[in-house]
Amino acid sequence: MNRFHDQTVLVTGGTGGQGSSHVRAYHQEGANVMIGGIDTERGAALADELGTRAHFTDLDVTDENSWSAAVRATESAFGALNVLVNNAGVQNPPVPIENTEQATWSRILDINLTGTFLGIKVAAPALRRAKGGAVVNIGSTMGLGGTAHYAPYVASKWAVRGLTRTAALELGRDRIRVNTIHPGVIATPFIQEPAAGAAAAIADFYSPEPFAIPRLGEPADVTRLLLFLTSSDASFITGAEYVIDGGLLLGPALPAEAA
Ligand SMILES: NC(=O)c1ccc[n+]([C@@H]2O[C@H](COP(=O)([O-])OP(=O)(O)OC[C@H]3O[C@@H](n4cnc5c(N)ncnc54)[C@H](O)[C@@H]3O)[C@@H](O)[C@H]2O)c1
């Protein structure tokens, strides 16, 4: 399929993990892709590998000037910006609230929440110039409940939900749709490489075994939903939240003998 022919997509944190899966898929579907991120080496290598219709731009999502430069670079390389994917995000090392340093709290909120806010703020005029478009903010199933020892991360992802709804209201009349995807546990460095200070990878305490679909999510699972939500097939969907977790939030499935 070529659903994104003549469209330009900017993916933050597009240099690895889920972000690079999104970048590859958009590119394969005909889009021009701007890979935004802080890992210059990997971003440039990915852009080189994809060849035409792919560029890398240094983008630290916590910095408004960096956002302005990235949006300018996107419009100057490809003529417009049609889709923004606010994918960049970081996890805190797991510690109780009373042992959480304020610096850690601020860093996680800065990247996950302020980074998403700045992205919408700076990209909105460009999306308007393109006569409409779509934004997807990546939340988390952790943003739908509570998770002990992850207060900064949980709070940041909860807040992204309110930001998404507000942006959807403000931008809908300009034909700009804004939605959130909440991934469950997805096999990326995020869960496989323990955060600084963590005793074990998240994957160790989130074994998929008891759940309805007993496997970890793959980046491609999220990518397929993202492409749908930013395509014209989703033209009446805004301010919505999509959970993609293989049934994790349903709780443990019945054991085979009780079914
Ligand atoms: N993997 C999971 O289980 C999972 C579950 C729910 C939600 N998520 C969310 O999915 C998104 C992608 O995570 P992932 O699983 O690919 O993990 P990842 O660690 O592979 O990717 C995170 C990306 O964010 C980038 N990044 C960090 N700080 C940045 C900054 N200041 N500016 C720009 N980029 C920055 C990193 O360089 C990296 O490319 C994140 O928002 C994460 O919170 C992940």
Automatic annotation (TrEMBL):
Its EC number is 1.1.1.47. PROSITE patterns: ADH_SHORT. GO terms for molecular function: glucose 1-dehydrogenase [NAD(P)+] activity. It comes from Microbacterium salsuginis. The keyword Oxidoreductase applies. Belongs to the short-chain dehydrogenases/reductases (SDR) family. Keywords: Oxidoreductase. The lineage of its organism: Bacteria, Bacillati, Actinomycetota, Actinomycetes, Micrococcales. Residues 1-20 are annotated as: Disordered. This is Glucose 1-dehydrogenase.
